[in-house]
Specification:
The protein is α/β, with parallel strands linked by helices and about 350 residues long. It is built from twelve helices and 14 strands. The protein has two domains: about 1-120 and about 290-330, 3-Layer(aba) Sandwich (Rossmann fold), CATH 3.40.50; about 130-285, Response regulator (Rossmann fold). The protein has a six-stranded parallel β-sheet with strand order 2-1-3-4-5-13, with helices on both faces. The longest helix has 19 residues, at about 165-185. The structure holds beta-D-galactopyranose.
């Protein structure tokens, strides 16, 4: 009888443990926007790895650029009992309610790379100097066309990121802070006349949308002999689409092709670094996602252990309800001259990733 009782108790205990998933509650919920871009995969995986090394349990999810999916995934993380949420938002205005629910459950929130607007429950923000990113892009064009020594005029078209991502405005304003004087002086001409960020934005950072817009710009403004000399593109995924549109309209590297314009980018994605090596894209901006992950992990650990996260900016990022204390990392310019040093020697990509 005693044996049967003991066996029954052991069986029930095992069942309860199994039902609770081993009895452990996740500590951290990481909500990333999409796997469509390799950077977010690296961001998510770097954080997960670093948290697990510290002994924390992590839920990592990707919302495939669907706002409702992201809200549901975050809600689910809160229900599962996470103490910290690290979120790269798809739409900066859609998380107000879910973050209130999170706060009511005692969860603290770190905005990851993208600022979350209209919520008083964003404790910290880990990102890069986003205005500085834009300045690097603008200077890439200024130096690429050698505006200091060339009279021009040169034709340029402008692209911006998703209008629901605050970074879009920082990148665009940073770039325009150095390009605008050359537009004003007439050295740079935007033939389409589309110079306002709302006219040049690209919803969801979608490369196909950028490709169609570039096609339309060429048809409408460059079909009677005018040539595009530069394209401001704030993201490698857009640059890929822009390059395709240009190539299918006679731009290229061949003797009979119209020379490729100076095209910028961001994120140092593998496919785009290859485009730089092949000569189709001029530059990209390298933001070391391992470092950003490290900053977010360090912030989360501080919150979990009751200390104050290190920040280096308390002025720049107002989310509509106040300034969010931030840690800004430094972005780096990458082109044909330094990609190996920046991306291979730093260990960001393995040697042999690219074909030379
Ligand atoms: C931005 C980010 C960029 C780029 C873009 C598209 O928020 O700062 O580096 O990744 O999203 O994913």
């Amino acid at each position: 009888m005693k044996k049967i009782m003991a066996l029954t108790i052991a069986f029930v205990a095992l069942f309860v443990l199994a039902a609770c998933g081993g009895g452990s509650t996740p500590d951290i919920g990481i909500s990333m926007p999409t796997t469509a871009s390799t950077r977010w995969i690296s961001d998510g995986e770097s954080m997960k790895e670093q948290f697990e090394e510290l002994g924390y349990e992590v839920i990592l999810e990707y919302a495939q650029d669907n706002i409702t999916t992201q809200v549901n995934q975050i809600e689910n993380m809160v229900t599962q009992g996470v103490k910290i949420l690290i979120i790269a938002a798809i739409d900066n205005q859609s998380l107000t309610n879910v973050l209130s629910e999170a706060a009511a459950a005692g969860v603290q929130v770190i905005a990851y790379d993208r600022l979350i607007l209209n919520s008083e429950h964003v404790s910290y923000y880990a990102t890069f100097d986003n205005f500085g990113v834009g300045v690097l892009m603008g200077n890439s064009i200024i130096n690429g066309l050698d505006l200091a020594n060339n009279a021009g005029p040169f034709n340029i078209e402008l692209f911006a990121g998703s209008p629901d991502d605050s970074n879009t405005f920082f990148f665009f304003n940073g770039a325009m802070s150095v390009l605008q004087p050359h537009i004003d002086s007439g050295k740079l001409i935007v033939r389409s006349g589309q110079t306002d960020v709302t006219q040049v934005a690209t919803l969801r950072w979608d490369g196909q949308v950028a490709q169609s817009r570039m096609e339309n710009l060429i048809t409408a403004h460059y079909s009677t002999g005018e040539v595009v000399h530069a394209v401001l593109s704030p993201y490698d995924g857009l640059s890929i689409g822009i390059i395709s549109a240009l190539r299918s309209n006679g731009y290229g590297l061949g003797a009979n092709d119209i020379p490729m314009p100076h095209i910028t980018g961001q994120d140092a994605e593998v496919a785009s670094v290859q485009q730089i090596i092949n000569g189709f894209q001029s530059s990209t901006i390298f933001k070391d996602t391992r470092e950003l992950a490290r900053v977010a992990v360090t912030m989360a650990e501080a919150l979990l252990t009751g200390s104050t996260p290190e920040i280096n900016d308390t002025e720049t990022y107002d989310n509509g309800l106040g300034i969010v204390p931030s840690y800004l990392l430094v972005p780096f310019f990458v082109d044909i001259n330094n990609w190996r040093e920046m991306l291979i020697d730093s260990g960001y990509y393995e040697a042999g990733t690219f074909t030379e």
